[in-house]
Amino acid sequence: MADARFEDGDETPLRLRAEGPEDLSVISALVQDAVFSAADMAWQAKRHRFALLLNRFRWEDRKAAETAGRGYERVRTLLVVEDVQAVRSLGFDRGDKDLVLSLLSLDWAAGEDGTGRLTLVLAGDGAVALEVEALDVALQDVTRPYLAPSGKVPRHED
Question: What is the pLDDT of residue 97?
Fold first, then answer.
């Protein structure tokens, strides 16, 4: 995955896997500013799997959209984390299924013997922390791209 670059983006759905911190940084960049509802999160405790359905901004297509003079796009994307032992949330009510959340980054804190904590950092000081036996994250686009409803590139206040 070291060869992945934003400039390589096209209409092909992304399908990536992260098993180390370097790989995770690529996926983190691609899911920055993705939005989702609390209802789009699922933890399958018996399967040790956490899944999240995102509306991902297509950062890899940004320059092509600007060059072609067309609108920016989003795509529905499935983010799956394997080997999850526990899930904790902070700063929002997971029971509020209508709550819309914005994902800022994926942060990794290594523990002993390959274990660690994967934190989904959310806008507004929210977070979802996943205690994992090993870093194993998959990202897969599951729909065709669609025009971003806002028509704008996500921006962050300093």
Answer: 81
Q: Which two tokens stand for residue 108?
A: 């990794």
Who's near 1: CB < 8 A, 6+ residues apart? 16, 17, 18, 22, 23, 26
* pLDDT number for residue 158: 55
CA distance 131 to 115: 8
CA 136, 142, 146, 149 torsion: positive or negative?
negative
The DSSP call for residue 133 is S
CB 2 within 8 A of CB 26: no
Distance CA 157, CA 17 (A): 30
Residue 107: partners with Cβ closer than 8 Å, 6 or more residues away: 28, 118, 119, 121
